[in-house]
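Hi Y.,

Following your request, here is the sequence exactly as I used it, all 393 residues.
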Amino acid sequence: MKNIYLIALLSVLIYSCSSDDSAPNIETLTQLPTIESVSTTTATAGDIITITGKNFDPNKTYVVKFNEVEGTVTELAPTFLKAQVPDEATSGDITLTVDGQTTVVGSIEINTTDIFVFHSSAKKLAKIDVTTANFTYIGENIDYGTNTRGAVIHSTNNEYIGFENDFTQPYIVRINLETGTTTNVSIPTSFLTVGTDFDDTAVDKDDNVYIFHNSAKKLAKIDVVTGNLTYLGENIDYGANTRGAIIHKQNNEYIGFENDFTQPYLVRINLENGNVTNVSIPTSFLADGIDFSDITVDENDNIYIFHDSVKKLAKIDVVTGNLTYIGENIDYGRNSLGAVIHAQNNEYFGFEDNFGEPYTARINLDTGAVINTPIPNSFLTVGKDFDDIAIKR
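Below is the corresponding structure, written out as tokens. Let me know if you'd prefer a different format.
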């Protein structure tokens, strides 16, 4: 009887457990994917990252968040998932959620895009708010801005580096972007025996800084600590009336734009051997004038310049010199101080001094739509002289 009683009691207990809604049903639990890798640890808003692994289920909904900000899943397969980094993303964990279960799959550092201009009148570096054109100042009483030759951002040192020709003793100005601490580094006189004329600073992906030494007719790589120059090329025809220079990563070239008064052209200088290729802008694009301003390059090596004479932005083919125009009747270029590509907004971003009424010009690279934003008067009480826009990516 005792055995019968125990069997009956055990049956009741088993039945009770199996009918309890709170009890887990192993077969209905979602199997989280096994994560093998994340394609990158750094990204910019709009980038696509790939999470690789096993057991992704194309029939399920996955949510990917970047430090708690949800991205967009763009592709899903059994062995990977792709997601786009949202505009509001900040650095932190990447999480993956499916059927209410969340796991951390990695971490990411979100690259921000900061744009700077030197406010000569204030003797301060200014970070520009892209939307409002408000300034955040960096540093005090900085000796820079008399006769400059462009500026770049040196990511490794976290510095804005400008080149001051200064007529007799050229030097680079290094401004720390956090502290405003400034270091001036003179170009040694041993490099100046042939003359002190320079043009068009540019920086490559490895933070090497270049400038064209007009007097020597050579490109020079600058040692940012000593100011020493390492020359590339010989007898290069460039520097009479330039419009800036960029580094073309794919071709490993310093590319400058020479307006040349009658026949504008690109100057392509190979950074390994100093070989030079000049590419003229075809005359078919010059019927309405030859005034250009502010060459710049995007992250995919597309090169842009503003064609003042036709009031249009132009993308340049580096092989043929042909121009593909963007926009119409754009108010920019009269007295501009450089331009950069703002990747997150997909815009050409220029700074127009406008002879005392400075503003930023934002040109959408797809539509040509333009937004001009005046610099607020509250920042102009000490003066309206500016120099050398630069971008930190």
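The radius of gyration is 28 Å.

Thanks again,
Q.
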